[in-house]
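Last lecture ended with a question: if I hand you only a sequence, what can you say about the shape of the protein? Today we answer it with a concrete record. The protein is DUF885 domain-containing protein. Below, first the input exactly as provided, then the predicted structure, then a couple of comments.
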Amino acid sequence: MSETKSPLPREVADAYVDDLIAIDPVTGTYLGVKESSSRLPDLSPAGQQAPAELARATLARLDEAERQPGADSDIERRCARLLRERLTAELAVHEADEGLRSVGNLATVAHSVREVFTVTPAQTDEDWAAIAQRLRAVPTALAGYRASLALGLERKLYAGPRPTATFIGQLTEWSDTDGSGRGWFEDFASAGPDSLRTELDEAARSATAAVVELRDWMRDVYAPTIEGAPNTVGRERYARWSRYFNGTDLDLDEAYAYGWAEYHRLLAEMKQEAEKVLPGAETPWVALAHLDEHGRHIEGVDEVRDWLQGLMDQAIESLDGTHFELAERVRKVESRIAPPGSAAAPYYTPPSEDFSRPGCTWLPTMGQTRFPVYDLVSTWYHEGVPGHHLQLAQWAHVAGNLSRYQATIGGVSANCEGWALYAERLMDELGFLTDAEQRLGYLDAQMMRAARVIVDIGMHLELEIPSDSPFHPGERWTPELAQEFFGAHSSRPADFVESELTRYLCLPGQAIGYKLGERAWLLGRENARRRHGDAFDAKAWHMAALSQGSLGLDDLVDELSRL
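The predicted structure:
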């Protein structure tokens, strides 16, 4: 009898994806697994144990896989490094019971319960029957989430009061989107077929009732209990989360200093561009305020959606064959408007594995109907093309050469956000920001990412503001100072600034990955250019870089430099 061959790292990684989908149908839906469409995950404390147990078992299997012949090939080695780093970082977060105080204005499991409906198939009666079943699962899912938060209260593991207050406000909007008593789930279900109308309406009403119940508990029990708790997390928790989002153990003080260096560099450039927009402007943000009133605008929500679609289509036509080599299915990306009650920042959702659902960019309108162009161009290069869409859709396209894990759920935030910020810079390098208005908007977006490094690290670690800062030199950061600083160095409206600061409080370490990830991508490109000299081929390098799957920042520079 022949011996059973032990799996290699890529096989271990792919088995992990299959096992995770079985316990997390939200992940399954994002990957396009139809069987996941009718279910929601168990968000209770017991439910949180299942993915942790799976991660531990997978790490044990990986130990064995790395000892097998062939495990030292580049493709197996790269996958093994990613899988080990990701699962270890995820377990560190789980074992610190962070899931028992997961409250914020985005990216919590409660947000995933709602947002998964926006990517659930909804073309046929069969699809809508699965949606009705998933709607009926909302009350149990939210009850499990509440049980996890209640256990956190028992253990004195508190979320911050500010993220909590914001989340309560979001739950209120989800339960009554327009003041008529009709909730988001009911609005969503209204698009279903008449043949399932009664079933969909009843299920949607039960989902909304569960949102109201969670909102009332958060308001009446959770918020009073955590009153006076800190909004920031301190160095130990910050380091843990930073590892999770960046895939490396950062020197946080060096990163903080780098944020300030970028701040000073960008401020000098912004002043030059601002002089072209509004000669004599006291600050670049005065010039940007002038553009808010007098610059080019898109009028109307449908119109801005269509305009953004055109911007991405134009970028694909210009870049394909010159700076990238894109498969036909990667060339498709859709512009959409984000559902009410979202956070203020635009975002992207990748295609399903088989591309039956395309990659989509999402614009939260925040009630606006008039949109300045300067604030959109580089942002859509970031969210769409050549940013998130080209990277994540290319991973899906070459999944057969990687592992399913590398191409989908193994993404490292700083790798992805770093690429997207690199993509903005690339479009500037290639001359796509054609006037001072667009270029000042791009620099403002870059400044926002530098400010994120400064305030995210600064306020969570309560660091001192440098003596050469024009803003409160020598003082220690607080969330209040951080919001003031961010607002003074951003063209964004006050509600956006407030939403951003709340985001940094509930996702410590995530916001720094944009600038630090961009730095890694630029360093990797420069190393490859030096190695190849005049033979360096930027198009070939871009496609090789986008086809190697995700990596933590520990490994990214090394791998990019080899290409």
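Comments.
1. The longest strand covers residues 333-337.
2. The longest helix spans residues 125-154.
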